[in-house]
Amino acid sequence: MHNPWLIDEIDILIRLALALLLGGLIGLEREQSNHAAGLRTNILVCLGACLLMLLSIYGFSDFVDEPNVRVDPARLAAAVITGVGFLGAGTILFTGKSITGLTTAASLWVVAAIGLAVGAGFYFASTSVTVMVLLTLWLFNKLEKRYIKAKKEHVISIHAVDLSSAMNKLNAILDGRKVIIKKMYMEDVAVSDKRKNDNETLTKLVLHIIMPQRKNEKLMQLMDDLKKLEGIRWVSSE
C-alpha cells in the first residue's frame, strides 16, 4: 500500500524542476516587460514555495505515528502566502499620481501558489494556472493597452507673459488634437532673470488633460505647438 507521507528522490527532483520551469516562464514575461520582479525572482519564489510544500508534507513523516504529534501539511503553506505578501509589497510604488507594481505583486503571489501546488503534486492544476497567468499578463495586457488605457492623463504647466492673448490659439490646438481638459487653474508667479537682475511676473496655467493616444510622441508634439505660441516662455509636463 502506498504511504502518502513518503516520497522518493526522483519525484522530489521532478517537482522542483517543474517549479523552476513554471516560475521561469512567468518570470521571463516579467523580465521582457522590464518589471522589478523578473526571471530570477519568480524562479526563486516558485522554487522556495515548492520546497516548503515538500517539507510541510514529507519532511516530518518520521513523526506521523507519534501519539502526541499532529502533522499539519497546510501550516507551512499558509506561512509562504504571508511571506510572499511582504515581498510583493516591495514591488508596489506610489509615484504621486499613480500606483505601479500591483500586477507584479499579484504575479509573485500566484507564482508562490504555483510552487505550493507543484510541491503538493498538483501538476495539472499548476501547469494550467501557469498558462492562464501567461495569457493574462501578455494577451490581456495587449487588450488593456488598446481598449482600456487608450487615454492617459497628463499635467502640463504653461508659463506666459500674457496668457490672455494666447488663449484662443491654445484652445484651438487642444481641440485640434482632441485633448480633453479635465481640470485647470491659473496663478501668478515671480521669476528672477539673473541676466537683467530683475524679477518678472508670469502667469502659470496648469492643465490636467486627457489625451486619446498613449504614445509620448503625441505629448511632445503638443508641447512643441504650445511653445511656439506668442507670449509663452516655457512649457513643462509631469
TrEMBL record:
<feature type="transmembrane region" description="Helical">
    <location>
        <begin position="12"/>
        <end position="29"/>
    </location>
</feature>
<comment type="similarity">
    <text>Belongs to the MgtC/SapB family.</text>
</comment>
<dbReference type="InterPro" id="IPR049177">
    <property type="entry name" value="MgtC_SapB_SrpB_YhiD_N"/>
</dbReference>
<dbReference type="InterPro" id="IPR003416">
    <property type="entry name" value="MgtC/SapB/SrpB/YhiD_fam"/>
</dbReference>
<dbReference type="GO" id="GO:0005886">
    <property type="term" value="C:plasma membrane"/>
</dbReference>
<keyword id="KW-1003">Cell membrane</keyword>
<protein>
    <submittedName>
        <fullName>MgtC/SapB family protein</fullName>
    </submittedName>
</protein>
<feature type="transmembrane region" description="Helical">
    <location>
        <begin position="73"/>
        <end position="94"/>
    </location>
</feature>
<keyword id="KW-0472">Membrane</keyword>
<feature type="transmembrane region" description="Helical">
    <location>
        <begin position="41"/>
        <end position="61"/>
    </location>
</feature>
<feature type="transmembrane region" description="Helical">
    <location>
        <begin position="122"/>
        <end position="141"/>
    </location>
</feature>
<keyword id="KW-0812">Transmembrane</keyword>
<dbReference type="Pfam" id="PF02308">
    <property type="entry name" value="MgtC"/>
</dbReference>
<keyword id="KW-1133">Transmembrane helix</keyword>
<feature type="domain" description="MgtC/SapB/SrpB/YhiD N-terminal">
    <location>
        <begin position="16"/>
        <end position="145"/>
    </location>
</feature>
